[in-house]
């Protein structure tokens, strides 16, 4: 199918095409507020975090919006949102400061964030990917299935294995004028998964019906 790619592929052009299809496949889901919250996550939030260098941190309202993005693009889990909204502002800032300072050590960086109630390795990976997309890919179900064959184990050990594979794939694809980050690889895999669900996945739901656990 056009604009989809298998994880084993080393065709950078195919990966670039899948990545280019991300925006239209996201819009095709027709989920309320997903397009603007995705723009916040991919563009506004990274700029905010980088603007706080050399001592970056994530503010609680930003974590709430990040979680809105994560749950909207994937499966909605209202209990996680309740937990995060109940967090102390200072605790979020402190944990995120320690996490960003731990990079590029992903094990330590994730551990610093998962002390927060409602923040598991997958949510932690979304935080880290916003600040360091060249190191930390988001642990999406779709990319997990593509890279590891399953998306049921949301542990730190599984995330580290996942991140290593996406880092290696990004390095493999970054040849000549092409440059990929692990986060680019994740978005291309998500886009491919959406495109593979149905030939109509690039169309709004109004035109064609599409279907699109534990602390994450």
What secondary-structure arrangement, pairings included, does this model have?
Blueprint: H1 12-20, H2 22-28, H3 34-51, H4 60-73, H5 78-85, H6 89-102, H7 106-113, H8 121-131, H9 141-148, H10 156-173, H11 182-197
Q: Roughly how much helix do the residues carry, as a percent range?
A: 55-70%
- Low-pLDDT parts are 204-213
The overall strand count is: 0
How far is the first residue's CA from the last residue's CA? 31 Å
Mean pLDDT: 91
Q: Could you say which structural class the secondary elements and strand pairing correspond to?
A: mainly alpha
How much of the residues is beta strand, in percent?
Answer: under 5%
Radius of gyration: 17 Å
Major β-sheet profile: none
Helix count, DSSP H or I runs of 4 or more residues: 11
Shape: globular
Q: What's the helix-strand series?
A: HHHHHHHHHHH
What does this entry look like structurally?
This protein is 61% helix and 0% strand. By secondary structure, the protein is mostly helical. The longest helix is centred in the first third of the chain and has 18 residues, at 34-51.
């Amino acid at each position: 199918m056009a604009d989809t790619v298998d994880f084993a592929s080393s065709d950078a052009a195919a990966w670039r095409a899948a990545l280019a299809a991300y925006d239209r496949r996201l819009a095709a889901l027709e989920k309320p507020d997903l397009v603007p919250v995705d723009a916040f996550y991919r563009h506004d939030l990274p700029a905010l975090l980088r603007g706080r260098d050399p001592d970056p941190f994530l503010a609680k309202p930003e974590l709430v919006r990040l979680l809105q993005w994560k749950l909207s693009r994937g499966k909605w889990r209202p209990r996680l949102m309740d937990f995060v909204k109940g967090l102390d502002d200072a605790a979020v800032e402190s944990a995120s400061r320690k996490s960003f300072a731990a990079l590029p050590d992903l094990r330590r960086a994730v551990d610093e964030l998962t002390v927060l109630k409602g923040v598991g390795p997958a949510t932690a990976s979304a935080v880290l990917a916003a600040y360091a997309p060249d190191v930390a890919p988001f642990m999406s179900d779709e990319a997990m299935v593509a890279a590891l064959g399953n998306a049921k184990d949301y542990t730190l050990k599984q995330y580290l294995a996942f991140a290593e594979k996406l880092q290696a794939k990004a390095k493999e694809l970054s040849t000549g004028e092409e440059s990929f980050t692990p986060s680019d690889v994740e978005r291309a895999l998500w886009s491919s998964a959406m495109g593979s669900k149905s030939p109509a996945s690039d169309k709004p739901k109004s035109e064609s019906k599409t279907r699109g656990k534990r602390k994450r």
